[in-house]
Amino acid sequence: MSAWTASNIPSQRGRTAIVTGTGGIGLETAAALAEAQAMVIIAGRDASKGASAVAEVRSRVPGANVRFEVLDLANHRSIAAFGDRMLQQFTGIDLLINNAAVMNPPARQVTADGHELQFGTNYLGHFALTAALLPLLRRRSQARVVSLSSVAARDGRIDFANLQSERGYQPMTAYAQSKLACLMFAFELQRQSDRQEWGITSVGAHPGISRTELIPNGAGTGSLAGRARKYLWFLFQPASQGAWPSLYAATAPEALGGHYYGPDRLGETRGHPRSARVPPQALDREVAARLWQESVRLTGATFE
Question: Over 60: is that where the pLDDT of 131 sits?
Answer without folding.
Answer: yes
